[in-house]
Amino acid sequence: MVNKRWVFFVPIIIAVMVFLLLKQNTPAPQQRPAQEVSTAVRTLAIPELSVTPVAIGYGTVRPVSNWEAVAQVEGVILEKHPQLAKGAIIKKDSILLQIDPVDYELNIAQIEADILATRAQLDEMDTKLENTRASLEIEKKSLELTKNELDRLQNLLKKSSVSHSDFDAQKRSMLAQQQNVLAQNNSLKLIPNQRALLEAQLQQKYSQLKRAQRDLHNTKITMPFTGRISADNIDLAQYVRVGEKLIAADALDKAEIEVQIPIRYFRGLLRSGKSINLLEGSMHHFNKRLGIKAKVVLREGGITTSWDAHFSRLTDTLDPKTRTIGVIVEVDNPYGNVTPGSRPPLIKGFFVEVHLLGAPRPNSLVVSRSSLHNNQLYLVNEQNRLEIKKVKVELYQPEFAIVTDAKVGAQEAEANSPLTAGDQIIISDLVPAIEGMLLKPQTDEGSAERLQTLVAKAGIDKQENTSTDNDFRVKGVQ
Fold it and tell me: Are 159 and 90 in contact (CB under 8 A)?
């Protein structure tokens, strides 16, 4: 009887023998040479365009000039402009308030009377001066006669023709006459001082008259410019005191907006081949040299409208937290060309966009932002292979950037050709990006047209936004 253990191993032995037989009869595998696989990419020829740098900030409209009427005299309000109320527009030189002028008119009348009295005293002083001079001449002549008589008596006394008592009496008369001449001289010397005192008092009265006339003028509160009333704190028959705030108004001829722009992006708007001395020349000349233009855009309640503006000035300080600088633009005639329902006036408090436009940069190499990889571009060379080139970004904008060749060493400069218009850059995602890898480029004409369109309309951002008063957005910030 056959052992059952061998029955179990018989199939395994047969399978091993068949496998060895097949392996001996199988031919050896043939090896094929390795072939390089190309990667399909979308490309775009670098265009050379004229680019206008743009930065956008956000701010609140405010008037360039505002005025606050403060009471300079006290009294009761007798009259009030019928349209005087918060929000009303009142023309220049309109009388807004009339303070009771009676006390000030009486004061003027009293001072004018004092002036007339002082003038009369001056006229009297002139007459006194003439009389004193005439009296002095008479006293001098009388003194001369008295002296002559004394000389005659002295000669007679020598001849014993007159007594000593007569001679002494005449001598006393001469001394008395000398005293009269001296008194007249003293009076004559005092008259200029007395006149100067009266003239000083007259000038003082004139000053008091001017002050009183000014006080009378200040009883009328008039509009210094055509403006809009922003505060009305007074009513008829109310008594006002000096220093009390009565009315506030905003001018309508100009409006200004202050926006915060990061320095690194504001720098993109500045381009001048010459140095500028800020201490020389006017601010207008300085702004003209910078060449920055501005536009204000309002998007409110489904309305989108804009105003031409002009760059006015920079603020005096740099925000140390946000590293931004304040830029102030002005809009002339913000209440002009109003169309109800579609174009409101640019009133105080509107939250608006401010578009700052720098001088155009012609012949600029423009690439899309998505094609930049840490200041590097992926190029397709003449052999359809990947070339990674370092570039310097001259200007960032939201969808594109201006680039130039980066400064590299001498060996790198010899190995890499300069970046020029027409070079093919890769605009599709390439992962991994290995320099020298074989590519299969395909020109994307649609992207080229979109890039040129973005550059052409870079001046105005048409998209809606939901920014708040405390934030800002600048073209070029991601």
Answer: no
* Same domain for 137 and 241: no
Count of domains forming the chain:
4
> Which residues, 6+ apart, have CB-to-CB distance to 244 below 8 Å?
70, 71, 233
Residue 182 domain boundaries: 103-217
The terminus-to-terminus CA distance of the chain in angstroms comes to 91
Q: Which residue has the higher pLDDT, 478 or 361?
A: 361
What is the gyration radius of the CA atoms in the chain, in angstroms? 51
In a domain, 446, yes or no: yes
Rounded to whole angstroms, how far apart are CA atoms 11 and 4?
13
Same domain membership, residue 231 and residue 88: yes
- Pick from 413, 312, 416, 292: which is nearest to 360 by CA? 292
- Residue 266 half-sphere exposure toward CB, CA atoms < 13 A: 18
Using the structure block, give the residue that is written with the tokens 């309508």.
252
- Segment 305-339, tens digit of pLDDT: 999 999 988 888 888 888 888 999 999 999 988 98
Q: Which residues pair with 56 in a beta bridge?
A: 355
pLDDT for 190-223, tens place per residue? 889 999 999 999 999 999 999 999 999 999 999 9
Provide the pairing of β-strand 361-368 with 239-240: unpaired
How far is 350 from 373, CA to CA, in rounded Å?
40
Task: Decide if 463 is inside a domain.
Answer: no
Asked if 395 and 53 count as a contact pair (C-beta separation under 8 A), the reply is yes
